[in-house]
């Protein structure tokens, strides 16, 4: 889940200079890229067929092969999405958007470097892979890949008539199918870039982090990755801002039928044909998406379809039906500041009532607000707990029963950059550090720069070995349910125990009731 704020802050205007061109042979054809600062960079590589025309709302299809060298020196198109306050990085908005980007420090295709595949966030509705420059991570000795996938109603439209077209009799998870197709592409092709197809780490933030947790339970993704990193997003939790996006098929169908009606396709004998005749722009402008406590508009997100997602994700984790590959996961201290909108104490109580029903009084007692100026702080703590901190603990505990190697973190650093003073350690703030984007020109200071270097070391160490620890770093212990040890990335890096235990226990009680 990414807000317009993050879309603005995380845009890195990366315009590489062409120093050299190396031709790489893919399974689909030859490509050339560029070389900059010791990295070979390939941008806008098509990994699947354009999902347009009859392929709209179809399972991801293979890309059409080519013979001549395709020049991949500029970002490709990004998926159509609601307009924001900042420009999404990419060539243009287009349904022909299934492309990926690669940064590799490998000098030859014999090196077998660890591979990190980034899944961007954005509430299943916004963003692009090109918003994340992989240069600094790649310079730590890994091959960095990021990609685009279908978003919003183009990625998660669950109309019943689509099930009639599907060999599996299902519908709705086209964006997740794109992600799986991108991982299949990596498995087939990454060795050509000096990457090891048997040492792949998937990582993502917000909706990208939720995607990691879903890929961990999808049989279609089995064997396509060897480690995972989830930053602020789990198998549930988003429902407090995306109530229709809780995975229930019936809700997804209702949202899809609502969009069909808005576009005046509901009376057609073939409603899908009618919907495919509408432009992507018409579809995007019709669903009025927003992520705020009382936001209206339609919501589109992954659905429990029995195929890509076999069953309720929480149930599958409880049953131990998830991948046991090593996993790092965590949340930030001030996640909720990004989603807050001014509200009175009565509004806050109303929101709590909607979310917690009969447990409302108990929740309000733990997160009280006596006056309007109190609301922002308690909303920040409560919403961050609901959406990110408790789901992370849930996954860590479920995996602990399986004896699966798990590392839990909490990010608390308030950046010296201007957004830090306004929003604290907000949702997505850790991305500046994970991607090494703590430039002093942006307002960051030496503490930020040092922390970014340390976090990149933890992340890339994990990608290399399945263990984030390394020389010169504070030891990060594996998660154990008895001590619940975790690492805190703050002004200094240090370890803690029992992160937000009292608050998480309350959320767990509500979830189980």
List keywords for this structure.
513 residues, eleven-stranded mixed β-sheet, three-stranded mixed β-sheet, 17 helices, 14 strands, 14% strand, disordered N terminus
The CATH superfamily appears as Alpha/Beta hydrolase fold, catalytic domain
What count of structural domains?
Answer: 1
CATH fold-type name: Rossmann fold
The CATH architecture can be named as: 3-Layer(aba) Sandwich
The global form is globular
CATH class: Alpha Beta
Largest sheet at a glance?
A: 11 strands, mixed
Give the rounded overall mean pLDDT: 93
How many H/I helices?
Answer: 17
| End-to-end Cα distance | 27 Å
- The residue ranges in which pLDDT falls below 50 over 5 or more consecutive positions are 1-20
The radius of gyration is 22 Å
Strand order of the largest sheet: 3-4-6-8-7-9-10-11-12-13-14
β-strand percent reads 5-15%
Q: Structural class of the secondary elements? A: alpha/beta
Describe the structure.
- By secondary structure, the chain is of the alpha/beta class.
- The protein has a single domain (4-512), classed as Rossmann fold (3-Layer(aba) Sandwich), CATH 3.40.50.
- It has 17 helices and 14 strands.
- It has helices spanning 4-9, 135-138, 152-156, 160-165, 174-189, 207-215, 249-262, 271-276, 280-286, 313-318, 345-356, 360-366, 372-401, 418-423, 431-434, 446-465, 501-512; strands spanning 23-25, 30-32, 34-36, 39-46, 70-71, 99-104, 113-119, 143-147, 195-205, 227-231, 327-332, 406-411, 486-489, 493-496.
- The strands form two sheets. It has an eleven-stranded mixed β-sheet with strand order 3-4-6-8-7-9-10-11-12-13-14, sandwiched between helices. A three-stranded mixed β-sheet has the order 1-2-5, with no helix packed on it.
- Strand 13 (486-489) and strand 14 (493-496) form a beta hairpin.
- Helix 13 packs across helix 17 (501-512).
- The longest helix is centred in the last third of the chain and has 30 residues, at 372-401.
- It is globular, with a radius of gyration of 22 Å.
